[in-house]
UniProtKB/TrEMBL annotation, chain A:
Function: Gas vesicles are hollow, gas filled proteinaceous nanostructures found in some microorganisms. During planktonic growth they allow positioning of the organism at a favorable depth for light or nutrient acquisition. GvpA forms the protein shell.
Binding partners and assembly: The gas vesicle shell is 2 nm thick and consists of a single layer of this protein. It forms helical ribs nearly perpendicular to the long axis of the vesicle.
NCBIfam families, sorted: PRK09368.1
Ranges annotated as biased composition (Basic and acidic residues): 73-82, 117-132
Natural source organism: Streptomyces zingiberis
Underlying gene: gvpA
Protein name from the UniProt record: Gas vesicle protein A
TrEMBL record, chain B:
Stated family: Belongs to the gas vesicle GvpF/GvpL family.
Lineage summary: Bacteria, Bacillati, Actinomycetota, Actinomycetes, Kitasatosporales
Protein name: GvpL/GvpF family gas vesicle protein
Subcellular localization, as worded in the UniProt entry: Gas vesicle
Domain of life: Bacteria
PANTHER family: PROTEIN GVPL 2
TM region positions: none
Alphabetic keyword roster: Gas vesicle
Pfam families assigned: GvpL_GvpF
Organism whose genome encodes this protein: Streptomyces zingiberis
InterPro entries to which the protein is assigned, alphabetical: GvpL/GvpF (IPR009430)
Length: 148, 244
């Protein structure tokens, strides 16, 4: 049984991207048996990322306002308020832009944090580049970095 | 020398030869049998840390151990003082673990994560909400608008996006839940609008993945990630004495 993303995702590749997708399951799920001890996760504490998809804050509001200001509303058919079905066409067309913004940055954050965790854990295995290629902003991401 | 425990399988099962475990160089993986069960273990390296290599080894061993039969995956980093202590756990809770192996036989976990594509969801809320659209146009006409105007627009947009997150999460949950035997929430820290694991028979995985594909087509503003088949990380239960 090889673990792979069940679907090819647009543009994201990398042989081990599956690891990033299951990391939290490996670390946070699975059977715990009281008679056993768990290895210290020092160095991976950084994975405890506190992200809110949308944070209610002035920063978020300003960022959204600016994002809407630069939004290319012309990339799809013009919305006629009387014809809701046009919305579907518009979003389909919009999706072709393949944009990944702050809202979908969690996977990247996870893999990036993972890499940082490794770096902290002795600077080993620097070949472990995140499989995600997107370099989107994630200003809505709050990361709680815990020192070792 | 402590013993690293990967998971539990039926005692009748054999592990593939040359299975590589945690450590550098990797420690060989072996089985400890008691109570009709086999614990999949290896020696534990000194100073085991959660590094990429070892996380991958843990995942790989469980994938191999579960390739042709049920496996109860342990959480990463489970250590026993020695082999005897592992055997004692198997013996003490043989019935519980055997019944879980029975329940999970032929079943796999798929994890689904969803997030909004930002520009697409913004385009959606601007087009669907007359007030937001009007305010956005007014701000644009004013070269971006005043600080207060921006805050007002941004707050409305944030509210609309949040509502959309809930709405989309419900759509996904309803659509995917019916295709699976059981579901369990993923760890909450990762900030997805949806992070759910589903348990299903290996043979029903294909329709499940197809239904995800349909959702992708129907909701192009949602970024959907599906991972599987996985060992049933989210569907194993501790023995009753271990419930905390």
């Amino acid at each position: 049984m090889t673990v792979v993303p069940a679907q090819q995702q647009g543009g994201s590749g990398g042989g081990s991207s599956g690891l990033y997708d299951v990391l939290e399951l490996i670390l946070d799920r699975g059977l715990v048996i009281d008679a056993f001890v768990r290895v210290s996760l020092v160095g991976i504490e950084i994975l405890k990322i506190d992200v809110r998809v949308v944070v209610a804050s002035v920063d978020t509001y300003l960022r959204f306002a600016e994002a809407c200001n630069r939004l290319d509303l012309e990339s799809g058919p013009r919305k006629d308020p009387g014809l809701p079905d046009l919305v579907g066409k518009m979003t389909e067309s919009g999706a072709k832009g393949k944009s990944k913004g702050a809202l979908s940055g969690a996977a990247e954050t996870l893999s990036e944090a993972f890499k940082q965790g490794q770096d902290r854990a002795g600077g080993e295995e620097r070949e472990a580049e995140p499989a995600r290629k997107s370099t989107s902003r994630r200003t809505s991401t709050r990361r709680k970095e815990e020192s070792e | 020398m402590s013993t690293y425990v990967y998971g539990i399988i039926d005692a009748e099962r054999e592990l593939p030869d040359g299975l590589a475990g945690v450590g550098d160089p990797p420690n060989p993986v072996r089985a400890l049998r008691a109570g009709g069960l086999a614990a999949v273990v290896s020696d534990c390296p000194e100073q085991l840390r959660p590094k990429r290599r070892d996380l991958l080894a843990h995942q790989h061993v469980l994938a191999e151990a579960g390739a042709d039969g049920a496996v109860l995956p342990l959480r990463f980093g489970s250590l026993s003082a020695d082999d005897d202590a592992v055997l004692a756990v198997l013996t003490d809770h043989a019935e519980h673990y055997r019944s879980q192996l029975g329940e999970l036989d032929g079943r796999v976990e798929y994890n689904v994560k969803a997030a909004h594509r930002e520009d697409d969801v913004l385009r959606l809320v601007v087009s669907e909400n007359d007030e937001i659209r009007a305010l956005n146009e007014a701000n644009r006409a004013a070269g971006g608008g005043s600080h207060q105007d921006k805050l007002r627009l941004g707050e409305m947009v944030a509210g609309a996006v949040r509502a959309r997150e809930e709405q989309d999460a419900k759509i996904l949950r309803d659509a995917l839940g019916s295709a699976a035997d059981r579901q369990a929430p993923g760890p909450e820290s990762a900030g997805w609008l949806l992070n759910l694991s589903f348990l299903m028979g290996r043979d029903t995985a294909a329709p499940f993945v197809e239904s995800v594909e349909e959702l992708r087509r129907a909701h192009p503003h949602v970024d959907l990630q599906v991972t599987g088949p996985l060992p049933p990380y989210s569907f194993v239960r501790p023995a009753p004495e271990h419930v905390s």
